[in-house]
Amino acid sequence: MTLTDISYAEQRLGGMMVAPASSVNLPINRSIVGQTLSYQIINDTGTHWRYSATLSP
User: What is the pTM of this model?
Assistant: First the structure.
């Protein structure tokens, strides 16, 4: 799948590919706890889903 439109606290991280059964680490500063992280997931058929989460320690 593809992660795209990754953003938090006025920072944009762009996008990245994530292989099946794997994980990725995002370069996020710990000082932004409580901020909202937003992103989109695009699957192999091109379907987009938008998500957001509040960052916690």
Answer: 0.74
